[in-house]
């Protein structure tokens, strides 16, 4: 059994931070047309909000991945459940992720996309739990750093539930 305990980040704070991130990305990518990749399914809502704050000729793509959890950086550590639609060779790629936890998924995915010849790769994660890191990985853009709590909402799930909550909440597991 589980229950929502506290709201960690409310709708107003989410909107404010998404706007700041969008402005920062727009400045950093001025003159470019990056491929902005939504990592399914967790980043869907963040992605939809963020891209509307970036006034650049961006291209959309999506990917679904899961990490095998190994700590090395070889490109074999990420399982691709749904691949990109277009070739990213020579492209500026911006990956949009819901949360960085151990760092395994993003470390493996960025090395895979580098191997495929992306011109540049950056990661924008809405949330980051730095205290949980088991591999050396830092996102280029982070919405909020949070403590070691399991959170849901704004795209993040527990057993596929709670993704549609408009805020980030702490989930408490009970028995
Ligand atoms: P990691 O950084 O490879 O350990 O994995 C990150 C992934 O784990 C995220 O994309 C989420 O799917 C999942 N995850 C990690 N922490 C949480 C959480 O607090 N709530 C929901 N999903 C989480
Ligand atoms: Mg995920």
Tell me the layout of helices and strands.
Layout lengths: L1 E8 L1 H18 L6 E6 L3 H8 L7 E9 L10 E5 L9 E9 L3 H12 L4 E9 L12 E5 L5 E2 L15 E6 L2
Parallel strand pairs: 2-3, 2-5, 5-6, 6-7
Antiparallel strand pairs: 1-9, 3-4, 8-9
Helix pairs in contact: 1-2
This protein binds inosinic acid and magnesium ion.
Structure description:
The protein has helices spanning 11-28, 44-51, 104-115; strands spanning 2-9, 35-40, 59-67, 78-82, 92-100, 120-128, 141-145, 151-152, 168-173. With 175 residues, the protein is α/β, with parallel strands linked by helices. It has a 6-stranded mixed β-sheet with strand order 4-3-2-5-6-7. A 3-stranded antiparallel β-sheet has the order 1-9-8. Strand 2, helix 2 (44-51) and strand 3 form a beta-alpha-beta unit. The relative contact order is 0.22. Mean pLDDT is 94; it is low at 70-76. Inosinic acid (IMP) binds at residues 42, 67, 97-105, 150-152, 156.
Compact overview of the structure:
The chain has helices spanning 11-28, 44-51, 104-115, and strands spanning 2-9, 35-40, 59-67, 78-82, 92-100, 120-128, 141-145, 151-152, 168-173. It is an alpha/beta fold and 175 residues long.
């Amino acid at each position: 059994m589980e229950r929502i305990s506290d709201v960690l980040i409310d709708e107003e704070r989410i909107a404010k931070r998404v706007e700041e991130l969008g402005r920062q990305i727009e400045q950093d990518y001025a003159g470019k047309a990056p491929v902005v990749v939504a990592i399914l399914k967790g980043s869907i809502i963040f992605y939809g909000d963020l891209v509307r704050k970036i006034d650049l000729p961006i291209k959309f793509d999506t990917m679904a991945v899961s990490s095998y959890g190994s700590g090395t950086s070889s490109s074999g550590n990420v399982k691709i459940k749904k691949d990109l639609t277009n070739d990213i060779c020579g492209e500026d790629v911006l990956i949009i992720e819901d949360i960085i936890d151990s760092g395994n998924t993003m470390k493996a995915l960025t090395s895979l996309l580098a191997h495929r010849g992306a011109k540049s790769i950056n990661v924008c994660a809405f949330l980051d739990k730095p205290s949980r890191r088991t591999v050396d990985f830092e996102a280029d853009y982070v919405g909020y750093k949070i403590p070691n709590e399991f959170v849901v909402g704004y795209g993040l799930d527990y057993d596929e539930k709670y993704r549609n909550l408009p805020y980030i909440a702490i989930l408490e597991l009970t028995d």
